[in-house]
Amino acid sequence: MAFPDKRMPISTGAILTAVVLCSSSAAAQEASNRLSDDLPPVGFGTLSQSDIGIRLQTPTLIVSIVPLAESVIRLLAADTYRSLHRLVKSKEEELLTESRHYGLLDPTLFLVSFFGTQPQARFDPEAITITEPGRIYRPTTILAISSSFGDRQVSQRETAVAIYLFEDELSLFNSFEVSYQGESFNQWARILRTIERERAAVDARAASGRRDTTSVAALRRHLTETSSPQ
Question: Would the pTM of this model clear 0.85, i.e. be above it?
Answer without folding.
Answer: no
